Amino acid sequence: MPFLGQDWRSPGEQWVRTTEGWERLRMWRLKLLENFNESRIARLIRLAVLEGLCVQKEIEGCQGSQPYVCIVKGTKEQKTQVSLSEAFSRLDMSGAVRDNHRCNYACKLLELLVTKKLSTLSGTAQKVVFNIMECVLDQVMKTKNNTGVMQSLLKEAATALHQGRYNHLGSSSLWAHHMQAVVRMQKRLDSIQLDERSDDGQVQMTDLPDDCIRQILLRLADHKDLVNTGLIDQRTFSLAEEQLMWKELCLFHFEPCQMCAVIRRNESMQQLSWKVLYLRLAKRYGLKDVYAEMLRLCRHCSALYWERRGHPCVLSHLDPQSSPVTPACFVQLFAS
């Protein structure tokens, strides 16, 4: 309700009627803003508290999280809606290198990207690849495991950077930054010191009976690990050279038709040792990739997820069928 004073030069002050009576409009506006700010601050505080609780629950339940990414069915243009860097982020690839079950898979994936696709990757994807390599190196320096894998990965990265220095995507300064990162990581890896286990009186592998050592050797899937383990002492070396060990390796990695293909004319299985046969097969066909955990593709929702962590699919409990995705298939999906 406007109130006009007696002075014609001034219209006077405006008044509004409230539950407490008549108040000046200017003062009522200030009071309203003060009340609004207080309620606004209280609301923000409540939201911050709730967000803090959600973050705490997320941190506490990070071990049971379900990282996954959905694959778009259709043409190649539709599939490129999910980039390589985004797929790495959604699948928690940086956390995978810190997990013993997923580390070998992630390292193999990095090896394929570095050796075959590095010069064709975008600048963002290149940064993600080298950031994950940094995470691998941090884990190697912390646990002092997989030093050979990291050494091979850095060597291949240096070779790929040298070969693609004149033909690559991204700026030349970014490519030079990658070279400096490889040199820096190589220096860090060279500084690692592997300490031998001290004689603490606990049971060691050499203290086990032959049957226990034989069962340990039978679970090795790579002949390099078998040979290196046999270098411990003479007894372990004799166990590693048994024909049973090389026979199990042949039967694990190769099919019977492949074994028959490498047998030369006028030779028979009785004349060949399993070790010689294994070396021939490995040279011609290569070894089967073995991973403790792999990515799998759901047949219902086309979600790419880690096998042990699952994914939020409403039909997975009814028909949990999925197909394994090898590192080569992953590269073909996101980096082709």
From TrEMBL:
Domain of life: Eukaryota
Keywords: Nucleus, Ubl conjugation pathway
InterPro entries: F-box-like_dom_sf (IPR036047), F-box_dom (IPR001810), FBX25/32 (IPR040394)
GO cellular component terms, semicolon-separated: cytoplasm; nucleus; SCF ubiquitin ligase complex
PROSITE patterns to which the protein is assigned, alphabetical: FBOX
Involved pathway(s): Protein modification; protein ubiquitination
GO biological process: protein ubiquitination
Domain F-box intervals: 202-249
Subcellular location: Nucleus
Primary location group: nucleus
Protein name as annotated: F-box domain-containing protein
Species of provenance: Ridgeia piscesae (Tubeworm)
